[in-house]
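Students often ask why we bother encoding 3D structure as a string. The short answer is that it lets us treat folding as translation between two languages. Here is a chain of 74 residues written in the first language.
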Amino acid sequence: MDKPSEKNYKRMQKFVEAYCRKTGTTTHPTEGVSDAVIQGLALNQDQLGRPLCPCRFYPDKEEEIKHRTWICAC
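And here it is in the second language, the structure alphabet:
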């Protein structure tokens, strides 16, 4: 797996932390799962300009970005 930029990794990490505080939710209890999701979000931000959920399959990522219906519930 490619590595995301440090800038976007930290950005997504802060986003996840803020989201958890606001919503009262937590990250995945299994060590490494949350980090993999954050890395995937950051990598998609690097490659596509949007943090598409890395756990979902998109037949056409560019088309999905246009619809803006992607939400990472992971």
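Translate back mentally: The first helix runs from residue 6 to 23. Keep this in mind for the problem set.
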